[in-house]
Amino acid sequence: MPGLPTEPQPVTPEGTPAPTGEPLTLPGLPAVADPDAEADLDEDPAAQLLELEETLPRPDGPVIDRPYRIAVFASGSGSNFQALLDASRAGNLGAQIALLVCDKPQAKAVERARAAGVPVFVFTPKEYESREAYERVILEELERAKIDLIVLAGYMRLITSMLVEPYSGRMINIHPSLLPSFPGKDAAGQAVEHGVRVSGATVHFVDGGMDTGPIIAQRAVEVMPEDTATELQARIQETERLLYPEVVSWFAAGRVKLEGRRVVLF
């Protein structure tokens, strides 16, 4: 009969064509490979899974398989430090406060840390020959504590490249003005003196300058006509205590990406 194969076809005991390892074809349809012929039964399933995982997209930055750990630097009362402690207790920080670094042994921040069970590294700057000398010791403490992010919270000392470079993109500060306006000391006093209508708080990355790093977040505070510097500073501090824990939680969640001077949140 026309169209029938002239060569004998192998058959199984059940009468169906035996697998040949060649693609199965039907007129007008694409070839379909025989799955039994392609499978490698001797390949380790774990190896197959690992090979598959290598093809999957991965998030930017290192994968951290432990709690996100921060070190807080403070010199005074530690009101922003306390706000971070409170957020941590409430489960809103997403990070472990693993170390307090303080340059004043009698500071209220030290008392707050010890009451909360946070490890403390206290140093007296005049006991060291240079700023770089005590920063070298601080760096050792940070490495020992496996710190992911440095959070400056009222730390009143300039920081050199000894710390800035190893923690580039991983050190933040909060400043009581809407930067780049009124950097440096007495920002609230500068705002009142200049008669601005709005000031506020800025969280920014730390670089080699004075309050010049890329801006991460800002929150505005209205300046009242009758405000003194002290009154404005108090209201800005209230805003700081809300803003800073929120920003730290963004870092802990891996939501912050630095592209040049532009900060991207996702």
Structural write-up:
This protein is an alpha/beta fold and 266 residues long. It has a domain at 69-175 and 203-216 and 241-265: Rossmann fold (3-Layer(aba) Sandwich), CATH 3.40.50.170. 32% of the residues lie in helices and 18% in strands. The protein is built from eight helices and nine strands. It has helices spanning 35-38, 45-54, 79-89, 108-116, 131-144, 161-164, 187-194, 229-252, and strands at 69-74, 96-102, 120-122, 149-152, 171-175, 198-205, 215-222, 256-259, 262-265. The strands form two sheets. A seven-stranded mixed sheet has the order 3-2-1-4-5-6-7, sandwiched between helices. Strands 8-9 form a two-stranded antiparallel ribbon. The radius of gyration is 31 Å and the shape is globular. It starts with 34 loop residues before the first helix and ends with a strand.
Q: What is the strand and helix layout of this fold?
A:
Blueprint: H1 35-38, H2 45-54, E1 69-74, H3 79-89, E2 96-102, H4 108-116, E3 120-122, H5 131-144, E4 149-152, H6 161-164, E5 171-175, H7 187-194, E6 198-205, E7 215-222, H8 229-252, E8 256-259, E9 262-265
Parallel strand pairs: 1-2, 1-4, 2-3, 4-5
Antiparallel strand pairs: 5-6, 6-7, 8-9
Q: Helix proportion of residues, in percent?
A: 25-40%
Based on CA atoms alone, the radius of gyration comes out at 31 Å
Instruction: List unreliable stretches of 5+ residues.
Output: 37-41, 52-63
Secondary-structure element series: HHEHEHEHEHEHEEHEE
Count of DSSP helices? 8
Widest beta sheet: strand line-up = 3-2-1-4-5-6-7
CATH topology call of the domain at 69-175 and 203-216 and 241-265: Rossmann fold
How many runs of DSSP E, i.e. beta strands?
A: 9
Which architecture name of the domain at 69-175 and 203-216 and 241-265 does CATH use? 3-Layer(aba) Sandwich
Strand content: 15-25%
Q: Which structural class best describes the helix and strand composition?
A: alpha/beta
Which geometry do the CA atoms define?
globular
Q: Identify the CATH class of the domain at 69-175 and 203-216 and 241-265.
A: Alpha Beta
Give the full name of the CATH homologous superfamily of the domain at 69-175 and 203-216 and 241-265.
Formyl transferase, N-terminal domain
Termini separation: 69 Å
Average the pLDDT over all residues and give the rounded result: 85
Largest sheet: 7 strands, mixed
